[in-house]
Automatic annotation (TrEMBL):
It comes from the Bacteria. Gene3D superfamilies: Homeodomain-like. The keyword Transcription applies. InterPro entries: Homeodomain-like_sf, HTH-like, HTH_AraC. Residues 174-272 form the HTH araC/xylS-type domain. The keyword Protein biosynthesis does not apply. Keywords: DNA-binding, Transcription, Transcription regulation. One of its GO terms (molecular function) is DNA-binding transcription factor activity. SUPFAM superfamilies: Homeodomain-like, Regulatory protein AraC. This is AraC family transcriptional regulator. It comes from Faecalibacillus intestinalis.
Amino acid sequence: MYVYEKIKLDEHLPIKILDLYYESSEENVEKHWHNSIEILVPILGKVEIWDNGHMIRSQNVDVYIINSKNIHGISFVSGYEVYKGYGIQINYDYIKSIFPLIDHYEFVQPDGEVSREIVRTIYRIVDIYDDDKEYGHIAIKGLTDILMYILLKKLLVRKKYVLQENEINNNKIVKIVNYIDQHYKENLSIQVLADHFYVSQSYLSRYFKQNFGTTIKKYIDSVRLEKAINDILHTNLSMTDIAYNNSFANPKSFNRIFKRIYKMTPHEYRKLLK
């Protein structure tokens, strides 16, 4: 069973930018999957990329594309002191908004000038992200559109439908996660979710933990915390209002869960970052 990873985007952007740096095999990325498309750009050192049963060595590619829902992982190659590279994860909903048929298509691996064009665009995105925190998001959105233009125009092919069982399982966990994301303000519980998806509580708890790597309760808390942080940073609401607006049982519960994850109180977090 492979764990589903929910991608948390960089604020205001349809992508997540990864600065990848590994020093030992202990930092391997275990096999997992997500809806987002991921593009890896190796710079220094060597890793092995495991992608849906295929093993690719980073030194053999200038850029590597991991398609939506592909099971993948990264292994550090011994004999090299470090690995350095960049990664870009492009949001599935953003892709679907500009190409609604994406579920029936995938991207082939680039080579030659197309590969270099993708690398140049990603380097430009990383440079702007690092150097311009105030207005950089405007340029990065435009560059992300250009990146998607390259992918769609030059690398798009119709998907061959294999691994149908994996596809069914992947869709099931995504539906559960999406339901929680959309209904987090409601009185969610394992019982409520089990009833909605017509399964037993024990099956749902076990299935979610196996596919998502955490419990349903902890995931619901994480979604509510994510929304609460937005309120903490971008509104003047009191902590009591924020707690109830995001469906925490009470301000004390909100404070306890927040402190367990962030090692400080919500008030301290606001004071530190706002």
